[in-house]
Design goal:
Elements (H helix, E strand, L loop, with lengths): L10 E8 L5 H17 L4 E6 L4 E7 L20 E6 L2
Antiparallel strand pairs: 1-3, 1-4, 2-3
Length: 89
């Protein structure tokens, strides 16, 4: 990990959601087609992740990012999405 402070103070949000097993492919499609483009439109750098236990995460960094990401349709989630705000050090 670099500690050169490049981008120090930049807002970062980590967003995580879990899908019912039978809805996981649909949730990942929704993330790729709706959530990621919406966050990128704010000028943020966005990376999405998928796990073997039906969870997905987005990490977005940029001055225009806030804590509110688009909410997935209720039928695609096993529980409400969670998010955490950080500041790059």
């Amino acid at each position: 990990m670099s500690h050169d402070n490049q981008g120090a103070g930049t807002p970062t949000v980590m967003w995580e959601v879990k899908a019912p097993p039978n809805k996981y492919p649909e949730l990942l499609d929704w993330i790729d087609s709706v959530a990621v483009p919406a966050v990128r439109a704010s000028g943020a750098e966005v990376t999405s992740y998928a796990s073997a236990d039906f969870r997905a995460a987005i990490i977005a960094t940029g001055p225009g990012i806030g804590g509110d990401l688009p909410l997935p349709p209720a039928d695609l989630v096993a529980r409400p999405a969670k998010h955490w705000l950080f500041t790059r050090r």
